[in-house]
Write a structure and sequence with these properties.
With 394 residues, the chain is an alpha/beta fold. The chain is built from twelve helices and 23 strands. This is FprA family A-type flavoprotein.
Length: 394
Amino acid sequence: MQEITNNIYYVGVNDRNKALFEGLWPLPNGVSYNSYLIVDEKVCLVDTVEVDFFVPFIERIREVIGDRQIDYLVINHMEPDHSGSIGLIKKYYPGLKIVGNSKTFDMMKGFYGIADGTHLVKEGDTLSLGSRELRFAMIPMVHWPETMVTFDTSAGALFSGDAFGCFGALNGGLVDSQINCDEFWLEMVRYYSNIVGKYGTPVQNALKKLSGLQINYICSTHGPVWHENIDRVVKLYDRMSRYETDPGLVICYGTMYGNTERAAEVVAAAASRAGLKDIVMYNVSKTHHSYIIRDVFRYRGLIVGAPTYNAGLYHEMEVLLSELAGKDIKNHCMGWFGSYAWAGKAVAKIKEWNDTRLHYEAVGTPVEIRQSLDAATHAACEALGRDMARRLLG
C-alpha cells in the first residue's frame, strides 16, 4: 500500500494503454487515475477510477482497509474517468454515502441512474470523520460545472479533482519528493492548455478561494501528489490562467509540395536574426495539435501559414485555428502568410479567423505567395519574421 501521510492512502491506477485522452489528446506516457482513502473512525474514499480498472482499484482498497466498510465516497468531479466506478463500488459497499453537491447528483443520476444514498454539501460545509474534518469548496467550471475540492484540515491535504493535474502515468513513486518531476512540467502545461485552457477566469476564482488555506499536499486526479513543489504548481496555474506568456514564437504551417514550408523557414530565420531565441516550428499535418496548443499557451507570438485548398483554407490549418478559438486564448500577437497556385484564398481566410474569432494583435504585413517564393515574397517573409521578433522583444 502507498501511504501519502497520516492515514491518507493512494488507491489509484495507471492507464498505459489508452492512446488518446478524451479521444483527442495523445498519451505517449500514459495517464494516472488517482483515488484516495482517508482512514479514521470513518473511512472516506475520494473519487474513483475509470471503470475498466475496477479490479486493481478494489484490490488496492482492500489492501488498505481489509474488511472494513467505506462510510463515505466523495466525488469532486463527475467526469467518467473519476466517477466511472461509482456503481460497482456501491455493490461492494452498499451502505456508503456519496458526498457531492446538487450538480454532482444531477449528473450522477444521468450517467449511472443512481439517486439514493447521498449526502449533499454546499460551499463551506464540513464533514467529520472522527479525529479529522473535511471542508468543501465549489470551483465551478474548473473545468465542469459541478467541480469542487475537498480539504482535509488535519493533514492540510487538498483533494483538487482535475485542478493541478497533468498527463503521464506514475512510474513507481507517487509524491513529488519521491520522483524526478522533470517530465511532468510540460505535460502539466499541455494538460492545462488542452483540457482546462478556456476557463481562465474560473481558475482565477478558484485560486483566490483557496489562497487562505495552509496546503501541505495537493492530491489531484491525474499525475503526482504535490508536496515539495506546491508553490511552483500554484504559480504555474496562476500564470496560465492569466494567459501570461514568454516572448517566444510558434510558427505553424500547412504544406502540400513544400512551398509554404520554405516560406515558414524564411520567416523563422529572419525572426532569429532579429534576436528572438525561443522559436518552435510545426507542420500542422504532422504534429498533433495538442502540442501546438501547449506552445501557444507558452509563447506570445504566433505566425501561421497555409496554402489555399478547395477555394478555402488548408484543412488542418482550419482545424487548428478552430481549436485555438475554442480555447479563448488571450494576449497574443499573430502574423500570417499563404500560398496558392491560381486563386488565392488562404490569406483572406486566416484574416477572417483572426477578425471574427481569435482577436489577436495583428503584427506585420501578411504575405501572399503565388506558386512559389520569388525575390519580393522572400523579402516580405523576412519582414514578417523581423516585425514579429521586434514586437515580442520590444
